Amino acid sequence: MNTYAVNIWASRYFWWHLAMADLRSRWRxxxxxxxxxMIQPLGLTVILAIVFSKMFHTDITSYAPYIFSGVIxxxxxxxxxxxxxxxxxxxxxxxxQCRNPLAIYPLRIILSSLVILMLASVPLLIWTLVVMPxxxxxxxxxxxxxxxxxxxxxxxxxxxxxxxxxxxxxxPHALGLILQVLWFVSPVYFEEQMFRRGGxxxxxxxxxxxxxxxxxxxxxxxxxxxxxxxxxFAFASIFLFGLIAILIGRRSEKKVIFYL
Length: 260
Fold this sequence. Notes:
This protein is an all-alpha fold. It has helices at 2-10, 12-26, 36-56, 60-85, 87-90, 92-97, 104-131, 143-167, 171-184, 192-197, 202-205, 208-222, 228-252, 256-259.
């Protein structure tokens, strides 16, 4: 494992270049460029906030930041898992020519997705500061911990999806259904109280998406620090999925070239 980690670090210029190349190709020939990473979730939030505030009879000024945080984080989840499942397939020319650790190709996806998540967080912070200035305080520093934690959790998940997706090419299509189910059982757009009132608190307490969202939402929407439970669950998830990714990688890394 130490040698493998050293090799990942040794190839850092390569995977960093790939991540930046993904971002450049994403916004190439676009007039607004990277601004689209902020405009798209902002526009979707406005529409959803108006509709949901009418449906659930909630205050739009407080509900909109709740939805905004869910929109940008869910986009991160979807992009890392779906793109991660194709990361080896898309990197086929590099894999066949270079003997770099395969873990760098899911890492490439995570880095570009994290940059987009951070850019999308800017209007969220501004919006919340305008409509909820009383929540601003030292607790906002906790938001900075979200990005490395989300990256460390998404990396092994994307790697697992990459190994499976290389062998079974139907996985990206199946992920659409799986993520849709996960969306319904996660407080992405729907408030936590709706789950608990319906006796579905287990979908909240044992859901990694909820705990990661709380690291962002607790400071912004409540003006408080995330709980120790939020962090413990996030790190336990990182350890669990990291261990699974390592075990799958040891068994399957040398076989990936044959499936490509």
